[in-house]
Write a structure and sequence with these properties.
The protein has 137 residues and is mostly helical. It is built from four helices and no strands. The N and C termini lie far apart (100 Å). 0% of the residues are buried.
């Protein structure tokens, strides 16, 4: 009877061991799944905090802009601009569209010209590669 009881205990131990081995991948999968879910939630939290911070900055900017628009300085500036008034020692200079176009042509930076015949002297293969890789000097 001792040997029969021993085999039942061995058989029961094998079943418990097989069950635990079978349960381990499930537990590992649940741990990994929970870690991924936690990571996703943390990422969403960081995104929401960034959105909140951006909205707070926009709110602060709008408050400052509203304060400026309500200031006497802005009101005075808007009235002067609208009615064409100037302050003492302030000169108003109006430039016509044609004069602006002429000034743009005068003060434009010079256009880069294509290589002339003299610059297109035949280069060695090595010089051509250096020019290709590092730009023309």
């Amino acid at each position: 009877m001792f040997s029969g009881n021993q085999s039942v205990k061995s058989w029961f131990g094998d079943i418990v061991l097989a069950f635990c081995i079978g349960l381990m991948p499930f537990i590992a999968w649940q741990i990994i799944n929970q870690t991924v879910t936690t990571s996703d939630i943390e990422q969403q939290k960081l995104e929401k905090e960034a959105q909140i911070q951006l909205l707070e900055q926009q709110n602060q900017r709008q408050k400052l802009e509203n304060q400026f628009l309500a200031s006497d300085y802005y009101v005075d500036l808007a009235i002067r601009r609208q009615q064409g008034y100037t302050l003492e020692d302030e000169n108003l200079y109006v430039i016509g569209h044609d004069k602006i176009q002429r000034l743009k042509k005068i003060y434009q930076p010079p256009q880069t010209t294509e290589k002339t015949q003299i610059d297109q002297v035949e280069q060695s293969n090595l010089d051509a590669w250096f020019d290709f890789l590092f730009g023309e000097s």
